[in-house]
Amino acid sequence: MKMHEVRVHPSKDNLKRDDQLAWKIAGVAADRVAVERDVAAMIINRIIDNAAVAIAAINRHPVVSARDMALGHARRGAGATVFGVPASRRVSPEWAAWANGTAVRELDMHDTFLAADYSHPGDNIPPILAVAQTMERSGRDLIRGLATGYEIQIDLVRAICLHEHKIDHIAHLCPAQAAGIGTLLGLKQEVIYQAVQQAVHVSFTTRQSRKGEISSWKAYAPAHAGKLAVEAVDRAMRGEGAPSPIYEGEDSVIAWMLDGPDALYRVPLPDKGEAKRAIMDSFTKEHSAEYQSQALIDLAFRMREKIENLEQIERVVLHTSHHTHYVIGTGANDPQKMDPKASRETLDHSIMYIFAVALQDGTWHHVDSYAPRRAGRADTVRLWHKIETREDPEWTRRYHATDPNEKAFGARVEIHMADGTVIEDEMAVANAHPLGARPFGREDYIRKFETLTDGIISRREANRFIEIVQDLPKLAAEDLHLLNVALPAGTLEAGKPGIF
């Protein structure tokens, strides 16, 4: 990897393109380096993962709305498919990115990468796949595009913190999606450069989408980024330019939305000819909840075995990282995180609620664990309100560690009982993490797909998809529509009418 220093420059400097981050990102995207075998295999795993969580959410209200909007933009001939809908129906790719991206993101259960900022790099898959279908590219082309999307987003997340400035993490996603589309289509560096800049310019939004009463926009935001990325590439392909230099300029996103005129970031990117391997540093979720809760759910399952009567718990303290404490813990100071009438989107960002339910049930379900009746149970509310988080400098240090063997997303938990005893335990990474007790492999991704889609799609459709996706490198251009997963006729719900 090569480290690139990124600073703000006054307009009079007339910063050369070769020195601009967007140009360097475009160079990585335009580099036709081969995708290594284990990376290609992991890309297949993540396509399976995305399909699993999308179908599990297929008739949830935000997904229904997004799908109905997309179906209002039908396209004859080559076009993109929409999850749940027969592959014979095609829509414009930016709207497929919108519908499929929302479906993937709705349950908060696909992959993650955490460093200086946060990300769900699987959000790259819907727009890049939609364009691949529309432009009739092959399975190998798709793999190359996805390797780039993952690489660029993860490299930006390693280096540039958005959340401390209350900027949502889609600001790193949208340029990654644009770069991935550029790789997919074999575009020149100049074209990708303009598309990346446009994508950055239009995707800076605030983190209010993940604060207070969290709405369905949490699922829509990455899908919106995908839609914007498709449009940005389309504009650039037609010869249009974009605000430049988007990162280093005097009135750029860094100068006014991030660290300001004196900012200095060091962004790692693959050198020319170096393989794009960033996807191997990401990890998926076994449980449908914010990633920082994954290890704590597993830890709750383990700790409950030591407690005979949960009603005897007086208080629970989770000693954890800055992020867990301030984003999904009591440090967020969000009363909604303690409210049994809160939305599902809010509850899956409340580690107090999540730990209480996991401790009581010993299981986690993507629907049942968030049901209003479950959240409103009196004994759950009592336990929930006894839980607090505290930032521990050591857990914060491990969260930001660059050594993968040190990096951790867990906590040390103290459960104080009425008789004065204290039960303590800790877990650094979730069981499904690459360094966890049961790291996810291909069979786990397939099992997750089968579990989440059971009773929603036919066994025949499930088997067909799993067989096809594992043969992705051999798929011809006309076969990428086979990566869609359709529901039986008459089982897709329709939502309220809108404009489209």
TrEMBL record:
The keyword Lyase applies. It comes from the Bacteria. One of its GO terms (molecular function) is lyase activity. Residues 20-262 form the MmgE/PrpD N-terminal domain. Residues 287-472 form the MmgE/PrpD C-terminal domain. Keywords: Lyase. SUPFAM superfamilies: 2-methylcitrate dehydratase PrpD. Monomer. Belongs to the PrpD family. This is 2-methylcitrate dehydratase. It comes from Acidisphaera rubrifaciens HS-AP3. The lineage of its organism: Bacteria, Pseudomonadati, Pseudomonadota, Alphaproteobacteria, Acetobacterales.
